[in-house]
Amino acid sequence: MSDFYKNFSTYENCVPPGVRLPEIKIESKYYKSLNLDESTDNFSFLKELCKQGVKERGFDKVDDKKVYSSRLRMELTVLNDLGFVDYILLNWDILNFCHENDIPVGPGRGSAAGSLVLFLIGVTNVDPVKHELFFERFVSKSRAKKTEKDGITYLDGSLLADVDNDIAYEHRQKVIDYIEQKNPDRTCKILTLNTLSSKLCVKECGKIVSEFSEKDVNLVSDLIPKKFGKVSSLSNCLEESDTFKEWAEENERCFSIARKIESLNKNTGVHPSGIAISYYEVSDICPMQSTNDGSLITAYDMNWVSELMVKFDILGLRTLSVIYDVCKSLDIDIYNVDLDDESLYTPLRNELRCPHGLFQIEADTNFRVCQKIGPKNLEQLSAVIAIARPGALEFSDLYANYARTGNSQNVHDFFADVLSYTGGIPLYQEQLMKMVVKVGFTLDEAEQLRRIIGKKKVDLMPKWKSKIEKKIEKNNLPTEAGEVLWSVAEDSANYSFNKSHSISYATLAAWTTYLKFNHPQDFFLSLLKMTKFEPSPQEEINNITKELSFFNTKLLPPDLARSNMDFAKEGKNLRFGLNSIKGISEKSLSSLRQFRKSDNPTKFDIFISAKEAGLNIGILSALIQAGCLSEYDCSRSLLVLEAQSFNLLTDREKRNVIFLGERYNFKLLDIIHEAKNGLIAEDGKPLMKESRFNTFKKKYLKYKDIYLKNRKFEKFANWYFETKLLGYSYSHELKEVFEDGEVIYNSLNYYSMNSNERGKFMGVVNDSFKGVSRNGNKYLKLIISDEYGKYPVMICDNRRGAKYTEFLERGNKVPEKNDILAVVGSKGADIVFADNLIPLNEKIYMKLSDLN
Q: Which residues are CB-neighbours of 94 under 8 A, at least 6 positions away?
């Protein structure tokens, strides 16, 4: 019988009183390194780890060492009193494994960066004293609870300190394997529950309850606003959209049912980073269920799991892999980069155009905020991350003005010093806590208020408002100060951010900024190497290539003679890696190495060698279409047809074709044409009998049909195949593709044009959004990309004309992802307002099934 059943076997005693921490097993070598006996208790071991960290960080020699020592004593005392010591050591053990095995980890995430103990033992790498981060934001003594039962300590899982860890993406599984090895049968992945969104509820209820068509319910669901990537709830929609409100009133039964099912559980999934660790065997304490791939996860979701087990977040972060790879190739220690050097942040100002790969900056909203603020130091970069969020975005102009001029707004003189470094904006939760402390409360009490406000515990708020009023009166402080504090506390729930997290992630952003703009070739090379782990590698490659020209670097095309399996440096440029050509499987890689051995091969040698190396005709065609055989001076479409034709020949026919090759200048189709006329082969027999020729021809004509279709648009075919197979086109820009022939667009570069200038733009659709404005006007918003970047395009109905409706009435469908468009319109400040959209209907064929 397991320990769990021994302790909780009776009905009255069937549920544990909390979380029992897993047993921490410390290897003897760590006791020896600290000159400790192995009988030393875990609290003493943790203290010695911290003392070692103090010396390694040099805090025993700084002027304010007393600040660090008193902070350390306080944190250790609280952690010990609350029974958190083993939890801290569990985190140390995991991160220490990473450090010893050269696995890159992040500087911290979430409120854990506010702990000096975690900083000293290497779990985080942000100095909480220097950045005014609070331990109480991580662990609140008044909030956390422990229970003693039969000599065993149990913790309240919902109030347990939470340490999240960022791990280099490709090493995440190693870390999970280590955790499972240390805790056999006591670890498990965690279930997630996905709920019904407002859009889905309206669509399904519209079709089932009101029997609307698919088209009608799509129009209704398009009325539901989406702000900062989050779809509004049905109740909020009534306030945010008059048109939707009218629909809801006209379809009361349908709307009522939709509201009832909104947020109900839809399906289950697996938590992307959560790992549960139990003192008991997981199957004893929690029901399990199987996933589609046969692995086991908890049948409880994250909230229930945290009541029974310790939950660890092990998040795989590609940015860490990039940083580590660049630093390793250049022999740089990223921790030696001076984040206080203002010149590091210069590239983030001066009209930043190249955000790709910059952690927390490359996303559209964050990028625009960064452009507006132009951060000069780590604090301002932290503010960019904190402001680029729903609610806080309204402060972007105010903070940008402060960053530019140094002029700060004054909420109240009493709190001026607390808010001065954010321009008078109470941007961080830690600032609210500091304001609460300034009127006379402890930091622990300040955390209580922050949590009550943040969780919107309405029943407790009047009590706290009264406590603030009494504290103001007791300490003889201005009445207005109390009113300002309460107003800030209530408002900040909608926008204030955890500074421990934003400083940690600003550190990662600063590291990527330094590497990108000081070592761009190595940085982009590392980004390209990481594309293999992306859900859409070719799309990521496309995004990277848009920026290379700004750094005088090119991504050279794949070449069988020059390319390595992975991306590589070539002079000042980069060379495409063969294993990143779409359709080239891992199994093909070893074959490719064999395939490249012969010198100066003819086309026929290539065809034979590919067959001997085990490359099927589809892979060989992909290599040709991607331009890997560019040394053969003929159209790629024709070369593919020759490869496909050669593949249809019998072994005898191939031997004879090779023999005849030089006589016919290695033009396979000429040889086959002569075979129809009775061409005699090397063995003295006809190359093909008439019946055999007819059999060959039947298969050949299908491939010829593809060739004839693609030949009409040879430039487009090259651009198309390169983009599909590689992610970018190196031979042509899209605007060049249609300069000749019937389709002439004279396409312009969006980025070279001035605001209000009219022109024609050509690009690929990345995304499209249909909607209806508050005035009831239909519109279509597209994200278009070309070789230089991406930009939004909008075509709409308004009082000046029904341009969107007219576009549809001409028989056009709504553009979808990867469609190619010519856009006629004028450039606004950051968008193109289209008068017309011209879809390109020319089609390129990649395989036989495309003919259908």
A: 165, 175, 178, 179, 312, 314
User: Is-contact 384 369, C-beta < 8 A?
Assistant: yes
Please give the pLDDT value at position 592.
Answer: 63
The answer to whether 608 touches 600, Cβ cutoff 8 Å, is no
Q: Are 489 and 432 in contact (CB under 8 A)?
A: yes
Q: Which secondary structure element, helix H or strand E, spans residue 704, and what is its range? A: helix 690-711
Q: Please give the Cα distance from 139 to 312 (Å, whole number).
A: 16
Please say whether the beta carbons of 583 and 647 come within 8 A: no
Q: Give residue for tokens 């209530």.
A: 490
The structure tokens listed for 650 are: 């019998």
Tokens 């938590």 appear where? 271
Residue ranges of alpha helices (H) inside 493-599 are: 499-518, 520-530, 537-548, 586-595
- How many Cβ atoms sit within 10 Å of the Cβ of residue 494? 13
* Residue ranges of the chain with per-residue pLDDT less than 50: 228, 740-746
Q: How many CB atoms lie within 10 A of CB 446?
A: 25
Give the residue carrying structure tokens 């069988």. 560
Sign of CA dihedral 264, 268, 273, 274: positive
Rounded to 10°, the helix 603-612/636-648 angle is: 60
Q: Report the pLDDT value the prediction gives residue 744, as an integer from 0 to 100.
A: 41
Q: The whole model's pTM is what? A: 0.87
Cβ-in-10-Å burial (0-12, 13-18, 19+) of 483 comes to middle
CA 236 to chain centre: 28
pLDDT tens digits for range 101-129: 999 999 999 999 999 999 999 999 999 99
